[in-house]
Amino acid sequence: MNRRASNIFRRPGPQASQRLVDAAEGLEHARGLDHTIRLISSAVRRTLRPGPVKDTLHGVPFGHPAHPPLTDVPVGCWISAGVLDLLPGTGRAARILVAAGLAGAVPTALAGLSDWSALHREQQRVGLVHASGMLTASTLYSASLVARSRGREGTGRALGFAGLAALLAGGYLGGHLAFRLAAGANHADQVAHLVALGWHDLCPADDLPDGWPVHRRLGYISLFVLRTGDEIHVLADRCSHLAGPLHQGRIVTDDDAVVCVVCPWHGSTFRVVDGSVVHGPATGRQPSFESRVTEDGLVQVRPIG
Ligand code: FES
Asked: What pLDDT, on the 0 to 100 scale, is given for residue 231?
């Protein structure tokens, strides 16, 4: 084969964009980060005890994670400051935006740290580097603000652009975490769409132990089933946080004496009657099913929708 023909069949090298994807995927398997992750996770868990503050940082009252929308403040302010830095006579406005971004970065980081402490290890590895990028950006913008406040506009702008580069790198990894690794996404929402409308036979009612959750299959869908006396509660078994098996969870009652299940993986707590979230890290309601018992003693379920 001549040289020209061999060039035609040569495998092309990876594009720059593919190298970026490969690098992000490589971080998922970077075991060298695990020791640091263990130290930080246990410190976060010791500091942020379960309760209203932690639930708010997760975003439980809002119905979805708080961290992603909070990032809009520092990211928006700092990108806007970068645009102003390219224009003459905008030093004061840029300085205010840098300071506003730093103020917004504090709750953003706390919410992110809280979410990160309850992720899978692969997600935590990417998340750690994402957080390092954002910490670097915050440090550079802090230095930029100090320089600008002392009248060193040129240095302040240069530090701002360095911070912007760190921000974009960290932001890319945040996207990888959210959209490739599905951190923060609802992992149970599809269940309600996979079951046809109408009633479906599930199992004999006599097979269900009283007060003890069990796992039942409806076709290929896994369901959490709990009988309490005459009532039968049915939820999707995949936890909306990260798909943990709810039927292996603890049964508790909340402050209003309503029966709840606690996910065995990260402690999300759902009311069994309707799947609503009592405690995070889950923020999405667990899909629930109506149930009834036929005259033949068969439990039937249908999706609520
Ligand atoms: S999978 Fe994380 S709390 Fe259920």
From this structure: 93
What is the per-residue pLDDT for 9? 52
Locate the domains of the chain by residue range.
14-180, 191-303
The reported pLDDT for the residue numbered 118 is: 94
Residues of the chain with pLDDT under 50: 1
State if residue 84 touches ligand 1 by the CB under 6 angstroms criterion.
Answer: no
Q: What pLDDT is attached to residue 190?
A: 86
Q: Is 263 in the pocket of ligand 1 (CB under 6 A)?
A: yes
Determine the distance separating the centroid of ligand 1 and the alpha carbon of 63, expressed in angstroms.
15
Residue in 115, 242, 270, 285 to alter for ligand 1 test, most ligand atoms within 8 A of Cβ: 242
User: Given the structure tokens 């039942």, which residue do they identify?
Assistant: 216
Cβ-Cβ contacts under 8 Å for 53 (sequence gap 6 or more): none
* CATH code assigned to 191-303: 2.102.10.10
pLDDT for 193: 83
